[in-house]
Amino acid sequence: MSNRIILLAHGSSDKRWCETFENLATPTLTAVADSRIAYMELAEPSLDDIVAEGVKDGVHQFTIVPLFLAAGRHLRKDVPAMIEGLEATHGVTIELAPPIGENPQLGEAIKDVVVQQLGANKS
Amino acid sequence: MSNRIILLAHGSSDKRWCETFENLATPTLTAVADSRIAYMELAEPSLDDIVAEGVKDGVHQFTIVPLFLAAGRHLRKDVPAMIEGLEATHGVTIELAPPIGENPQLGEAIKDVVVQQLGANKS
Fold first, then answer.
1. If we measure between CA atoms, which residue out of B56, B18, B22, B19 comes closest to residue B36?
2. CDD domains from the xrefs (chains A, B) (predicted)?
3. Contact between A107 and B5 using a beta-carbon 8 Å cutoff
4. Which residues of B touch A12 (CB under 8 A)?
5. DSSP code of A36?
6. What is the sign of the dihedral through the CA atoms of B99, B105, B107 and B111?
7. What global pTM score does this model have?
């Protein structure tokens, strides 16, 4: 059974915010089959939009990968509550993965960015 | 003249939040001389703590690298206002770098994390 990956960003009414997350998501959306981006609030597509679209496509299993550096109230309370509602409404199973910032690769990428910036400033 | 790097995280009263950012910062703090972590609010050390410590050490130039995926109100308004205050109070120069999420390397790291997680789930 296919499993659709949902990259979940916070969302904002500021288009520049969403553009940054769309750029961040692009390599994953390009490399990983059956992956989508969705916003928790204040921007579209919403999580509900993407789950409804999946159901239409015959997908009933989803994994949410939060594009968040750490888990705060949103990931500990709000998103699990949204997931419970979506599972009941759409008859689907949704797994919540840890926020991407909990993976050590992110710390390495941050180091690379800082070192690169320092080099650029020096030249 | 030496320039101190400040990795700026949002901060939270939840220790697990700060631990995640400390883990994210560790590779940079290890690799980059004269780098520190600071929190915008709700956790210590504060930005003021770190700038005051720098002044004590004879440092008068700082670069803030925001450990944020995108620039919202905090980075567009609150942090620039804090910087203005700190420059006036401490007689220092503080440069605000773009949030780490605006660097394409972060998007690549996110892709690697998702691909790795998918592989782990399959095995």
1. B22
2. CbiX_SirB_N (cd03416)
3. no
4. 70, 72
5. E
6. negative
7. 0.94
Residue of chain B whose alpha carbon sits nearest to that of A13 = B72
The two beta strands, B35-39 and B3-9, are: parallel
A-chain residues within 8 Å CB-CB of B4? none
The residue extents of the domains of chain A are 3-122
Q: Is A110's CB within 8 Å of B5's CB?
A: no
- The ipTM, to two decimals, is 0.94
Residues facing B7 on adjacent strands: B37, B65
Question: What distance in Å separates residue B18's CA from the closest CA in chain A?
Answer: 8
Q: Give the Cα separation of B45 and B40 in Å (integer).
A: 9
**Separation of first and last alpha carbons in chain B:** 52
Partner-chain residue, chosen from B24, B99, B114, that has the shortest CB–CB distance to A101: B24
CATH number of B3-122: 3.40.50.1400
CB contact under 8 A, B107 and A35: no
Closest CA to B68 of A115, A70, A46, A13: A70
